[in-house]
Design goal:
Elements (H helix, E strand, L loop, with lengths): L1 H10 L27 E3 L6 H7 L2 H8 L10 E3 L5 E2 L4 H6 L5 H6 L1 E7 L8 H19 L5 E7 L5 H5 L7 E6 L4 E6 L7 H9 L20 H18 L4 H19 L23 H10 L3 H9 L1
Parallel strand pairs: 3-5, 4-5
Antiparallel strand pairs: 1-2, 4-6, 6-7
Helix pairs in contact: 1-8, 6-8
């Protein structure tokens, strides 16, 4: 019954039992700590312009005032779990060398994380549970057909665009070389390494239907997301070459321009002159009209008097 309880607890991650939007992990659900120390992955190689303001006196001054000009905080991740990127996705997953039996059993258990941009919060907790699940699986010596992988949401463009993933963190169960995908929104329930291990061992992920869409893998309009992924990858490849501090200055100046433009006061309009109303002649009093009518001599009576 215990394995079934673990599986039932994780199935609520699919939204079948309407879990609360977010819950804070309790001390009773703290997963096992990694058995081996993790490696600290910092930002990549800096450009020359970045090094001018992040190294030396300017870097010392900026650190004193609490200004991070690199824009990429270091993240501690377990190096034994491969980092899946746009460049190595096809090599590691799509074109992985497998026998027919191995290909049928292969399961990739992936996490899409944003811890690199949000060092604290739900994403960091899910990262910690994911690493603990990997260690727990090694301790048990089971699930040889399951491979773990991590995707940095802030450092990939093509993968998340093809999968129509616009937020993170997510847990992904991938099969058939990326043709069968199941997504689970993380952070909705308390997770532990034992629950995730049982979830994979009992193949509870097969209860949920895989993602089917005309824009998804094998869909009629899959090419649309493919083209969009290529375009966004080109844009990202261009913007990533711009130094972070210069990007901050440009985006700040552009935002200030738009704000000033939207709040620009309108031109004062001249007051319209009131239209002149025609003055109508005052109406004659009713008594005067009656008196004038009675005092007017009749032509017929005058003529008769003259004849007499």
């Amino acid at each position: 019954m215990r394995p079934l309880a673990y599986v039932a607890g994780f199935l609520s991650l699919t939204g079948l039992d309407n879990p609360s939007p977010s819950q804070t992990p309790s001390p009773a659900h703290v997963p096992h700590s990694p058995s081996t120390p993790a490696t600290q992955h910092g930002p990549g190689k800096m450009s020359f312009l970045d090094s001018l303001v992040t190294v030396g006196p300017l870097g010392a001054v900026s650190s004193l005032i609490g200004l991070n000009l690199t824009g990429a905080p270091s993240v501690i991740w377990d190096e034994r779990i491969p980092l899946i990127t746009d460049e190595n996705y096809a090599e590691m997953i799509v074109n992985e060398t497998l026998t027919a039996e191995e290909e049928k059993e292969r399961v990739w258990f992936l996490i899409i994380t944003v811890t690199a941009g949000q060092p604290e919060g739900v994403s960091k907790f899910v990262d910690h549970v994911f690493d603990a699940t990997y260690n727990y699986t090694l301790e048990k010596g089971e699930l040889s057909h399951v491979r773990f992988g991590r995707i940095d949401y802030l450092n990939v463009t093509s993968i998340t665009t093809k999968w129509a993933v616009w937020s993170a963190p997510y847990l992904v169960v991938l099969k058939d070389r990326g043709q069968t995908l199941r997504f689970y929104k993380a952070g909705q329930i308390r997770l532990t390494d034992e629950i995730l291990h049982q979830f994979l061992k009992e193949k509870a992920w097969s209860i949920k239907e895989p993602w089917k869409s005309i824009y998804g893998p094998g869909g009629e309009r899959e090419y649309i997301l493919d083209y969009l992924a290529q375009f966004l990858s080109m844009v990202y490849g261009t913007l990533v070459r711009v130094p972070k501090w210069l990007m901050y200055m440009m985006s700040g100046g552009l935002a200030t321009f738009f704000i000033n433009f939207l709040h620009k006061p309108s031109r004062p309009q001249s007051a319209a002159k009131p239209a002149v109303k025609p003055v109508s002649a005052p109406a004659a009093p009713e008594d005067a009209v009656v008196s004038s009518a009675t005092n007017t001599p009749q032509k017929g009576s005058t003529k008769r008097k003259g004849k007499k």
